[in-house]
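FIELD: query
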Amino acid sequence: MFDLFKQKKEERPTDVKGIRDALLLFIKEQLQKAEGGEGGMIRGMQLYLFPTGEEKHLYEAAVYVEEEGRFREEVQKIGDDYAIDLPEGWNLEVEFTETPPPDAVKAKDIEAGLFFSTRKQPTLKALTTAYVRVLNGAAEKEVYTITSTSGKICIGREQKVQGADGFYRTNNIAFPPGTHDANKYISRQHAHIEWSDDLGGFLLYADEGGVPPRNKVKVRSGDSTPVKLQATNIGHLLKDGDQVILGESALIEFSYKQDPSE
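FIELD: result
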């Protein structure tokens, strides 16, 4: 199995097997450096991948994105073969990102970074970026960039509105009245998006103005049946390509891709 470690480091891999071999070699080297070659202090590994758009599918295949747990098994074999004592139940997180955290160790020959979470070092949280595109209706911008550090991203009619409690709210994604027929069906406090550390994704919530009987928020993933949000305290985990109807016909799309054609 480990003939792969004989490859020349200066050669940049260009196919799935080469990328996988380079990733495993990189992880092996970092494991041997950590804890003097002992892995007992390691609770988990975070592998950050940041290939170009053209190479992303190669990296996805290299880490078996369609086969949960398989790449972890490959790493465990390295630990077993090289007497690296990984603790029982250690976890591996693989994340595709535009920019890895600064504390992650960068590989030389592949677009990858690695961080070990231990008893001394907590898990890193990489910045996650997503995009909200207005497909129908007229907002102040056609595309909004949001990140996992953006906080609460409010959506509604008009930019600054006063709620029933007397306090003002700023809509980060605002649909000005009178600019499009679809806008008039959007409530002033319609919905909001928030990042969840626990789920590792963005959650969409309906606000008071976006739940029945006053108004509605509907989400459709791919060709599935649309989900109607009925309560303000239950969020919907957004997936890449999700389309969200606000009111009657205003439509936005959520995506992790900056260019929807990728």
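FIELD: remark
The chain has two domains: 2-118, 129-255.
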